Fold these 3 entries.
Entry 1:
Amino acid sequence: MLGRLNHVAIAVPDLAAASAVYRDTLGAKLSKPQALPDHGVTVVFVDLGNTKVELLEPLDAASPISGFLAKNPAGGMHHLCYEVDDILAARDRLKAKGARVLGDGEPKIGAHGKPVLFLHPKDFAGTLVELEQA
Amino acid sequence: MLGRLNHVAIAVPDLAAASAVYRDTLGAKLSKPQALPDHGVTVVFVDLGNTKVELLEPLDAASPISGFLAKNPAGGMHHLCYEVDDILAARDRLKAKGARVLGDGEPKIGAHGKPVLFLHPKDFAGTLVELEQA
């Protein structure tokens, strides 16, 4: 069922500073910052060739990553996003296996315009997992 | 400078349980567990097609991931490993940019038999970064 790693999301308190680290210190290729008001974040994509890192900065205190940054003020890895072919089939399989899908269990449109679901970190080795229909 | 994402390492308290989650719940392809006494861990590789997740369980209390698990008993994302072509050139560039290389700054032979270095999480958006010469 599990497909490619779509991205690793890193929550950061200062997107300009984190972008400078990836661009200037590590020499990576970066996108321009994109504000995604529906998701409460501004994002910069780091192109790694085989996958990407997404640097996420909260748009405001109500952002889904604000709580994480309150606990991790320097930033840190926030979630992993895996691709699946069929998100409804994936959800039903996960629920049948006893894994918890966050929210109401219905896919939402994610930051890439595709259906996504988030899974409970306690059921996945302490890691917040996003599934995205590829 | 920055190449592909070689792996995402997830530290886990129970490798058999985490493997079952990735194999049975998520339907991923897994390697057999390999004990790496030089690194203080037993590892299972999760094949994602474009990159991999490494599930790491400490071999004993002296393992480099034991402290992390004491703070994160359910497990969690431990580090990201990026590939570079030339690890000494990468190190020199990073030091010139003011980034801190952990340990004595000399590459060690990593879990894949290749030279690696670890970088200080505080200099990389709260993320422990491993560089591996590809």
Entry 2:
Amino acid sequence: MKQMIIASTSTLHGSGYLNYLLEELMFFYKDTDSILFIPYARPGGISHDEYTEKAQEAFSEIEKKVKGIHEFDNPKEALKNAKGIFVGGGNTFVLVNQLYKNDLISTMQEVIHSGTPYLGTSAGSNICGLTINTTNDMPIVYPPSFKTLGIVPFNINPHYLDPDPSSKHMGETRETRIQEFHAFNSQPVVGLREGSWLEVNGDQVFLEGELNARIFEYNKAPYEVETGTNLSGLK
Amino acid sequence: MKQMIIASTSTLHGSGYLNYLLEELMFFYKDTDSILFIPYARPGGISHDEYTEKAQEAFSEIEKKVKGIHEFDNPKEALKNAKGIFVGGGNTFVLVNQLYKNDLISTMQEVIHSGTPYLGTSAGSNICGLTINTTNDMPIVYPPSFKTLGIVPFNINPHYLDPDPSSKHMGETRETRIQEFHAFNSQPVVGLREGSWLEVNGDQVFLEGELNARIFEYNKAPYEVETGTNLSGLK
């Protein structure tokens, strides 16, 4: 049975890395003290080692040992043997490119479907949806495809940001961008504000955290859903 | 001899479409009263016809007739016969995808090199650089390549935005994104603020408009250049 936390962000303003989620994670990873970390998204271009150290620091607070997937000779075997997985944020294109390069997409789908607890933040959440067509990241590398894990039957927009009515900047608002997405694609998009996450238990998907989320469905006006909402019907 | 205006944006806050550039464009397009418009970037998902009408409205003020490239049976011939070209903004991925679909990349390079005046705004400026790896747009479609015209030997970042020190949002700043780009790529990036443009005359590239631009070179601290700066040495 699938068990996932699909979080908008790793970090809330003024708080430490993963801090706001640690209590949740203690319960989520209760059956293992060892987490397989996928550092491929390399935020700020840092190395896999540096990023894994950062994850280890946070997980030390709940007494979990973190090992980076790059430390294994065979990353597929590492995934299959993992008792808990965490895919960190950074650049979604870099993450997806590396997953394809290492031919890990189908193995990740298998282990998630078989019930290995999966935590994703930001880029690590984007890949849980159907495609990365709704990432906010800069396309700094060209991946072989935008298709991703499709564990949830919609797209994610992490770090969802409401329009700033005082802005004089002429770049598109997030809502405009997602509406443009729907000129070319029909799957729903869940705009997850920082501090929100989706909790997946088997076929059930619930919105968690303190905030509302904004849902964009094809040919429908965007709407808000409250925390606690069951989003399992969204497809 | 190449003649180009590569503009950060089509529109300044509180002003009409292309308004701030019209005086410049009167001179730039002085040898023709007919402009070939490429509406492929479809801002907000609007149709090619709607977008062409919008361009026509602005160009009417300087007595130019606008025709959309989609109105021609043979878009390659339309490009070759054009006396002036304008590629409007919108979504860079949608624009690039359509250029590849219609096999127009090399024809555009030819006509620009042969001297047809070319105006690009936003997405239409992005494609003048080496790749679209530094676009701000959402990747709502998957183009066959991120490589673009390479008329200037660097990348463009239009709508360049300085970090907002009061922001509590944890998404990456523009500067962080471009630095991540340089973890994987080595060409320079010109961050063009709204209201700035590059003027290309043959091999000369000058920064125009009222504002500074921000230059990002591989393995160097980012720096500011003043309007009027000759950027021909940047590669």
Entry 3:
Amino acid sequence: MATVNSDLARVRAQATFDPLLLTHFIYDGPEKTKRKRFLQNLALKDFKEQKFRRSAELSREEQYEEALRKCTFTVRRINELGLKDPTELYLFREVLFPSEPSPFGLHESMFIPTIDKQGTDEQRAKWLPVAKRFGIIGTYAQTELGHGTFLRGLETTATYDPRAKEFIINSPTVTSAKFWPGGLGKTSNFVVLMAKLTSNGRDCGMQPFLVQIRDLETHQPLPGVSVGDIGQKFGYGAMDNGFLKFNNIRIPRENMLMRYSQVLEDGTFVSPKNDRLLYGSMTLIRSQIVGGCGRSLAKAVTIAVRYSAVRRQSEISAGAGEVQVIDFQTQQHRLFTLVASAYALIVAGQVSTQAYLSVTKQIESGDFDNLPVLHALSSAIKAFSSWEMMYGIEQCRLACGGHGYILASGLPKIYTNEVPACTYEGENVVLCLQTARFLIKSYNAAEKGEQLPSLARFLQAPKGEKSRLTENLELDQLIAAYEHRAARQVQEANARLQSHLSRGVGAAEAWNRSSQSLVEAVVAFSHAFIVRAFIEKVTSARLDPSLSAVLVQLCQLYALQGIASNSGQFLKGGYLSDQQLLVVENKLYELLAALRPNAVALVDAFDFPDQVLDSDLGRYDGNVYEALMEYATRSKLNKTQVHEGFQKYQKPFVDFLKSQAATQSKL
Amino acid sequence: MATVNSDLARVRAQATFDPLLLTHFIYDGPEKTKRKRFLQNLALKDFKEQKFRRSAELSREEQYEEALRKCTFTVRRINELGLKDPTELYLFREVLFPSEPSPFGLHESMFIPTIDKQGTDEQRAKWLPVAKRFGIIGTYAQTELGHGTFLRGLETTATYDPRAKEFIINSPTVTSAKFWPGGLGKTSNFVVLMAKLTSNGRDCGMQPFLVQIRDLETHQPLPGVSVGDIGQKFGYGAMDNGFLKFNNIRIPRENMLMRYSQVLEDGTFVSPKNDRLLYGSMTLIRSQIVGGCGRSLAKAVTIAVRYSAVRRQSEISAGAGEVQVIDFQTQQHRLFTLVASAYALIVAGQVSTQAYLSVTKQIESGDFDNLPVLHALSSAIKAFSSWEMMYGIEQCRLACGGHGYILASGLPKIYTNEVPACTYEGENVVLCLQTARFLIKSYNAAEKGEQLPSLARFLQAPKGEKSRLTENLELDQLIAAYEHRAARQVQEANARLQSHLSRGVGAAEAWNRSSQSLVEAVVAFSHAFIVRAFIEKVTSARLDPSLSAVLVQLCQLYALQGIASNSGQFLKGGYLSDQQLLVVENKLYELLAALRPNAVALVDAFDFPDQVLDSDLGRYDGNVYEALMEYATRSKLNKTQVHEGFQKYQKPFVDFLKSQAATQSKL
């Protein structure tokens, strides 16, 4: 298996640009690319030396145990290497946990950051050092069996007892059990608990508490604590998502995280002054999810494109022999549009993270003006990109035919472990409706002649214009088309809302009755942002002309595909003519053919090591069939030639039917 | 848990029609409904008495063993009961194998039928009785590691040796290994093997052979046979999909299935007279898949609708308390459109199966005229319905938020075990392109003034008309809109094809360059068929007016949703005006609200026992939270309070970091 599959090698060699230049574009220059490769190679070496096992061969329970082995190893290794930069940590871990969660994930991403942001200086000094050296291991326990999105609906109670200076933590109902937090089931001995605080008989809303749930030495659950794993899931086999119930346990007053709200010793509740800062970290996380979705889609499409160059199936011209499936236009349409999407989402993640950083600076200087628009934007594109990723990964799996269905393809794992992005950190529909509030407010402000923040300014665009898009596929005209469509969809959703209001429907119900069209308006808004971000990033970067030409084609393909598949929203009002739509479709097909020689180079440029793809179909060397057969032979059912079920069930059954037939034939 | 959740009960009670009447509509009358319930209750009792285990709690290996136990039990039970009718068998098995495959599945659906249809009378007499009493257990081995769709590409060889009067069966390459057949890995001792026949040095094409692969007593693989399970997959844990390689093994001449092609003793190859009959069974299977996709979607949407009545989350009016999520328009949009799809696909399956039966009668009397159109239609709607199902089940899962992700929801199992319908029995894109050939041929025949078969007649419809659809949502206008759109899409695809041809592109390549638009035309064609089938079935049935009113609403919703989400194809050429599209959207939202009281009754009417749904979220009694918590506590990771990984990995790791910190603080 040392040589590269010749069909794959030939397509690879046809590229009109140097994929390394594109890798530099993605990873922010040659230096960072070099560093990325250095770190990922270190992690690769570790993975091999430690003989970590492939999750496609493990049971769910084995996956958890292996993940525990990996995450304890990884933390020590990261400490040794002194890695601190978030991007470097991400890239290092990506190799050891390829599309897989870590039981320590929530400790690092939520438990420590919540203490850091919501603890007082005293609390931070007490808990952060011990948490950082895993002296306590925690997770973030908010979601309950009966409650998710709606924070105020949580039922877990924290009642202050001023005599003992303690909180009493309780789970009063079945539905109040904490359910889902990652790392909760078996790994954590602490949680940041969101609970409904009552002090001096007063409802003080949801507050965060540090609660110990297991003994630090024996790891046994503490008295009054019932905790465990929630069982098998669609994916996330490596993660011990857990449940947690409290039977009136007591924690000291000092364990409420009191940077914002406080309970004084006598039980007096002190409200926070400003909680807008909380939005900031959600915004950052959502921007990161956007890029992460792009990266997950990039993995899936790397697998599918490489396999499509290796796989030969059916003839185009009868008798001319089976062709590489990448030569079928339908396959190109399925995959190349997803290559474009992956790039678009990765770029959008970068652009929105940049926007977050610049708005953060404004906030630090006391300027909160851009926070709402940034928050609205990050919510919307998180929803948009996770939906695109979800759809796209499954298309990649289907594009691999039957072989996409075996775990060795890597695609089921990518799908099942990445698709929760549609639900976590804000359920997508809920997020869209948050952004819709912002858009409707902005739209009405614009109607009144107010100036909008730059990201929403296109809502002021004139409504009656016609597109000037020609077969040259002018990039500014593509942006204009998307912004026109978004403005129009917002306008229509607003009209629907106003029409309900004008017929006397109450505000809340009118909003509900308009909500589907509001969601569609937010999708159009997100799409417009991403098209603009992608085009602006590509046209503003200093790129070799050979690379620039291909990236412009990708921008065009991304934009055309979105127009073709939502054509009604562009045709409405005659903005785009039938003739222009025909041009869009024809050019779309031409772009597929034009990108064909660059398809493998475009996915190679994502620079995923084979270990990260974890796919027998997506191997860089294209030796897919040998790898698949090797995977098959290692199936646990092949431990014996004859499965024990044969003696237990099949043979007695066959013998019974045989003797029955013999008896009947005698009768 | 004896009482029904009050929120669910309340919605159930709001229905404006009797769901039992709708159940009769689905299951073809009160008598058959009674029989259906009788049989499913028997199977339910069996399932409980035998203490069969739930797959959501089993490892993949346990799933296979449990499935073997179940299928041996089920065959004996079916024999006892004397069940023979395919529908009755389907309904009985549905309870014992809820959305799960059986290791005997291919024996019954492919191995026996292939011997039956392709064996000579002598072969049938010899093999069928023994196969039917499982004296031999087989599967159908066609797909190879490197070859799927393209039959002529298969590499397994069968070389006739006239001296020994035997065939030599061989797997000459890595890619020639049979790969994927269900039941092959561990269960089967025989296969019907598709292999490339050579006789007297002549290539005689692909032929079917009966090949023994395991000893009938010991079940050990025979010499020269390498066989095993292929490992873990996205779903299908209960199925031992297998690989199979031959090293020049010999089988007697009599083991070639010779009803059509024959090899005489001296090696003379005799070609078949007419192989069109083969299309017939594929057509039936594909029609059945259509109904099966409807049924799978129906299961998913039953779960999601019931759970949406139980689940309360977020407020519509601030302070008014959390509402049932079914009250959110976005949730209604997601789910009610899928309820409509499920009904539409179930009906389409019935209609196309009926069409198959009547065409079969024509064929038996020597009339093959309608076979091509039926074949084209069944291919197209198989593709269309499996795509709709795939999309729809995942929407149902997302509609259940986080809880949709746990295996106890039942939704991941339904998805992963049903989605292979997009790939098996003809990969969807390949099927669409087969149908496209028929459509283009028909279109050009119509252009020449030839009369088309009735199912394709709308391709002759005038192209320039305008829709007369009003806010009364006339059913004939909805059908007309879909047929106009389909005709237009076929016309456009044909124009694209002709344009390539007229510019000198070769026929094969011109076809390829038009293939994406051809696929889209086939989708439009399928959609039109389903809309018409649904509407005609509903309007022609004798129904209680209370039921008829709701079913007409479902037809309208199905049609409107398709227009709204493909609006560009209806707006093109001004067929539908912007104003009409606005009406479509407004009416769509009105229908969602109108269907809200009937939502639970509409899914209850599918009449799935809880056991078939196999879902803690979709329970008829709505006691979802108790069930989920019970599932969680049974997680294998909860066998001990402290997982063994704690002592093995976590504690040493924590101790190490602690001692390291102690050392550092001393320095």
